[in-house]
Amino acid sequence: MNRRDFPKIHFYDQDFVDIYDKSWSWLNDYWINPATEEKDPEGYFIYPQGNSLIIEQFESIFSSFFLVYSNRNYPANQNIDYFYARQEENGAIRWKYDIRTNKPVTDEQNPEGIGMPLFAWAEFNLYHKSANKRRIREIMPVLQKYMDWIIGAFKKENGLFSVPAVAGGMFNSPRGGVFYPVDFNAAMAINAAYMSALGDILNDKDLSFQYKRMYFSLKTRINSMMWDNVTLFYHDLDSEEHRLPQKTIAGFWPLLAEMPNADKANALISHLNDPKTFGTSHPFPSLSADSPDFKESGEGFCGSVFPPLNFMIIKGLEKYQRYDMARECAIRHLYYILEALLPNDQKEKGDVFEAYLPCKEGKAVLTGHPDFPRARYMPYVGLSTIALMIENIIGLSISLPRKTVDWIIPNLEIMGIEKLSLKRNLITILSNKSLRGWEIQMESEKLYYFTINILDQKKKTLPIPSGKCSMLIDKL
């Protein structure tokens, strides 16, 4: 596949551009046709593990957030549609399937195979990158049935959901005694909020109101029962509704759900800058650094840094307009990924990994598990090297149905994107310094609305006509 088919980025640090370009070429190795078990860009996005071909709900949902930028070289919805096609009569969709047999994969820890319910979040993002309203109409009955199954099977009388802690993917996190996991309950609220938003897209007021009510009900319960005024953090609950002591990265999911008010949000976000809790040199550890179970070597979810959880936190920071902090954390995170790809120690083979050390450069470890972390685990790494690169480091936010491109630039640098395909509309946006000063050059085949926000000092929305044009920053 020709790399020029993908959007090209410009950035002052060439290493960032290189890892972005490499990511697109690496992805080619992980598209597998289950019938032939050969590489096939029309197949499913799977990381082969030994002799097994397992398709996972968590990574399929998250990988859609960077596959939307592939200029349709890779179908961003392919894996998600696989899960929809496996929906059972009662509405159940399981967290993993063996793609050879199409049978669900469950275990003793998670007998029902419940996964993180985030399909509506992914669909909302797909809609804004494709403007495919018909898809929303077609998949809505599947999403409603799925939500009904979760409510019927896992909702308790207090309004919270009780599922195994491993449903969130944090397999060895020290969350002993958890009965009401904070990440799953926040994810249900996130899904409800986006179900309501999808209802608005369909102009279905009843649907929108039903899920909006569910969101606010969960928001009230999580804020009153899971927030701790001493630790200034969201905690898991035991079966008696007592807050458990551990501060895990799961406590940041309410940020993405827009649950904390301004004061709680400030307190929660302050943990991300505190080296004693989650402000380690490589943001963000999966367990608070002041926990007795925290390990600088990572040890799975006892401190390792995982790209999808960093993505979740950075998107949560955006919800509270902390764009500078989101960008700074994305850049630091990407530098540590680069350090592991290009290590100074020649004995260590460089690559991109599933998980990283929290306090220095390098991949995490898990004693007794030499296969952890998985190398070149692109379903996770692409979130950092592609999605965060475009959305937070370069700073672009795109919505096709609204015909809008927002560009948040914290400081003036040579950067931008070239030949990004927006539904048969190739756009280019670049900032450069010319003899006339800082200039933004644009090229598009169709009209769209461009909002630029520089240093929070200059903000302007302009209609950008088809063809080439440019604007001088000093003239804004």
From TrEMBL:
<dbReference type="GO" id="GO:0005993">
    <property type="term" value="P:trehalose catabolic process"/>
</dbReference>
<dbReference type="InterPro" id="IPR054491">
    <property type="entry name" value="MGH1-like_GH"/>
</dbReference>
<protein>
    <recommendedName>
        <fullName>Mannosylglycerate hydrolase MGH1-like glycoside hydrolase domain-containing protein</fullName>
    </recommendedName>
</protein>
<feature type="domain" description="Mannosylglycerate hydrolase MGH1-like glycoside hydrolase">
    <location>
        <begin position="76"/>
        <end position="329"/>
    </location>
</feature>
<dbReference type="GO" id="GO:0004555">
    <property type="term" value="F:alpha,alpha-trehalase activity"/>
</dbReference>
<dbReference type="Pfam" id="PF22422">
    <property type="entry name" value="MGH1-like_GH"/>
</dbReference>
<dbReference type="InterPro" id="IPR001661">
    <property type="entry name" value="Glyco_hydro_37"/>
</dbReference>
<dbReference type="InterPro" id="IPR008928">
    <property type="entry name" value="6-hairpin_glycosidase_sf"/>
</dbReference>
<dbReference type="InterPro" id="IPR012341">
    <property type="entry name" value="6hp_glycosidase-like_sf"/>
</dbReference>
